[in-house]
Specification:
about 40% helix; 11 helices; alpha+beta; single chain
């Protein structure tokens, strides 16, 4: 005779899972829409509104500014120089700083391979093609900063600190070349320079007080003085308020179908520590609610009545 082995932990977990599936209406009672509607912490409407027709936006594209190197002005400056170089076959290979292909040069290019991935390869430049040209998308047209706003912002900080507004000089792209020195080597060179310097003949230049101009705006150096959007201000959209009011009225009609006993059981279930507490809220004795599963049956009955009321008012 074989004895069936039962995993009590699995059986207990299964019973709890089944009860959770049966008490789905209790979750709606916990999240009931009562009281004043709380504004959503966002500046977007919580009500979905997407009236874009696919036929209307199928052919729409975002206009972008493209940066082409060398620019037209740079090309015309090289042409105006009149410095033309030809190879032994008479082909023009250079005009000023512009270089041209004689049909044998290659440049790095990209293509979509058979598997759909981007593959790099060396593309042969046709005869007469300009070398070292680049093209890339810069920004969307109309999406850049307003230059007048940047000027007004810089003037504000200049007047506030009482300093003269100097012109901004963009940093060059050319980096220093040559040997690099360690801090000890640099300090030794500085000591030698000071030893060979006569302080009486040194001229000191004092620069006027100014503001940092490394960024595009002076305000970029004073982030604590800038106002940014928090997304929590303003009132709720009328559509969100209307939706909240309708949900509250619907819930009030749903609760009206419940008896006082069901409401007491559901309220007790929100804070009860055991099924015995739920049974006591239904008027049962603690022993009956705990030992006879009276609390569990009362909660299931109230849950079923709530589910039926929700269907009636939906």
């Amino acid at each position: 005779m074989r004895t069936a082995m039962v995993n009590h932990k699995t059986a207990k977990r299964s019973r709890h899972s089944t009860m959770a599936e049966q008490l789905t209406a209790l979750l709606a009672y916990r999240n009931r829409p009562e009281g004043d509607p709380a504004p959503t912490q966002t500046n977007w409407s919580a009500t979905p509104a997407n009236d874009n027709s696919p036929d209307d936006i199928a052919d729409l594209r975002a206009e972008r500014l493209r940066e082409i190197t060398p620019s037209i002005d740079a090309i015309m400056r090289s042409v105006a120089m009149g410095d033309i170089e030809r190879n032994d076959r008479g082909q023009i290979v250079r005009i000023g700083s512009l270089r041209f292909s004689d049909g044998t040069q290659t440049e790095r290019a990209y293509a979509i391979g058979p598997d759909g991935k981007i593959v790099r390869y060396d593309a042969r430049m046709s005869t007469g093609a300009m070398m070292d040209t680049r093209e890339k998308a810069k920004v969307e047209a109309g999406g850049g900063d307003n230059p007048q706003e940047a000027i007004e912002s810089d003037r504000y900080f200049s007047a506030m600190f009482g300093v003269k507004l100097s012109a901004r000089v963009s940093a060059g792209r050319n980096k220093r070349t040559g040997k690099s020195y360690t801090p000890d080597e640099a300090q030794a060179m500085l000591d030698v320079a000071w030893a060979n310097t006569d302080p009486a003949k040194v001229t000191y230049t004092r620069f006027p007080v100014g503001l940092p101009r490394a960024g595009a705006r002076i305000a970029d150096s004073f982030l604590g003085m800038r106002k940014t959007g928090g997304g929590s201000g303003g009132s709720m959209a009328w559509s969100d308020i209307s939706t909240a009011l309708v949900e509250r009225e619907t819930w009030a009609a749903t609760v009206a179908y419940l008896s006082e006993r069901d409401v007491a059981v559901l309220d007790a279930a929100m804070e009860a520590g055991s099924m015995a507490d739920v049974g006591c809220a239904a008027g049962q004795t603690r022993q009956y609610a705990d030992k006879r599963s009276g609390g569990s049956r009362a909660l299931k009955a109230a849950n079923d009545n709530l589910a039926s009321a929700i269907k009636l008012t939906a």
